[in-house]
Amino acid sequence: MIRRITLSATLTLGLAATAIAQTKPDQVIEYRRAAMTMVGWNFGPMSAMVKGKIPFDVKEFAKHAERIATTAPQVLEGFAKGSDKGAETDAKADIWTHFDDFQSKLTDLVNESKATSEVARGGDEAKVKEQFKKLGGTCKACHDKYKQD
Amino acid sequence: MIRRITLSATLTLGLAATAIAQTKPDQVIEYRRAAMTMVGWNFGPMSAMVKGKIPFDVKEFAKHAERIATTAPQVLEGFAKGSDKGAETDAKADIWTHFDDFQSKLTDLVNESKATSEVARGGDEAKVKEQFKKLGGTCKACHDKYKQD
């Protein structure tokens, strides 16, 4: 399972300064899909609670919110330059031609997931549900523009 | 990307009390593979630093270590009962016939990843490299027994 570091790879990580070893596009794509899967895995029960499909449990909600808050800052490096193709992906090429806007939308996810985690720790159900809408809004804003149907 | 909650699914989550909605085996498998991908993504640069393949940067090392420490506690629910099949997986069926041992090995990962994150924050390169061996040991112990080649 341990990912092999490919020092001879050609991908350029066009991100903030980082010591991450250069990786192949298919590895970056696998990584971003993994990050999104983990976000979605945790978003699901939160959404179900807010919609009343399962009982609202603020402790469980907070657990999932914290996980998204720790995963969200890891998403950006899954969109390194050069990873627009190389494996199956739902990412539109517009991401890399509008990278500042894309990065701004990811920053919204980071900020709102952090806020959701904090509000959930507060334990006020009404506030949690209100904040959750903002979190969902950051997902939608980015998917509407940059994710293929 | 948002995972659909399948309330009518048949999978039994044989884990500690949790409000996670029941999910289909293929979703659980996708989730555990995602968690492992994220662990591996972060383990890679740490390993490369320890082996001298890339420059040792304790701040970067600590970042990756913290990520593994926050992801490791999320791995167990990716091995819910009933998820031995349903999609491509490297997980051996022995996991579910020796679940206490498997869970113990995952707990070792949780503990050693947490220790690695703490040691890395301390900044002592020699100690970090020593602790990293223990972390790698927890990966190997579980993979040797429960992961298909």
Features of the shown structure:
homodimer, 149 residues, mainly alpha, 5 helices, elongated, disordered N terminus
Plain-language structure description:
- The structure is a homodimer of 149-residue chains.
- With 149 residues, chain A is mainly α.
- Helix content of chain A is 60%, strand content 0%.
- Chain A contains five helices and no strands.
- In chain A, helix 1 packs antiparallel against helix 2, helix 2 runs antiparallel to helix 4 and helix 4 packs antiparallel against helix 5.
- The first copy, chain A, is elongated.
- Chain A starts with 24 loop residues before the first helix and ends with a helix.
- The N terminus of chain A is likely disordered.
Summarize the structure.
The structure is a homodimer of 149-residue chains. With 149 residues, chain A is mostly helical. Chain A contains 5 helices and no strands.
Biggest interface: chains and residue counts? A-B, 42 and 42 residues
Task: Give the low-confidence spans of chain A.
Answer: 1-21
Number of strands of chain A: 0
Measured on Cα atoms, how large is the radius of gyration of chain A?
Answer: 16 Å
Distance between the termini of chain A: 30 Å
Q: How many helices of chain A?
A: 5
Helix-strand pattern of chain A:
HHHHH
Helix and strand content put the structural class of chain A at mainly alpha
Oligomer: homodimer
Q: What percentage of amino acids of chain A are in beta strands?
A: under 5%
Mean pLDDT of chain A: 89
The helicity of chain A comes to: 55-70%
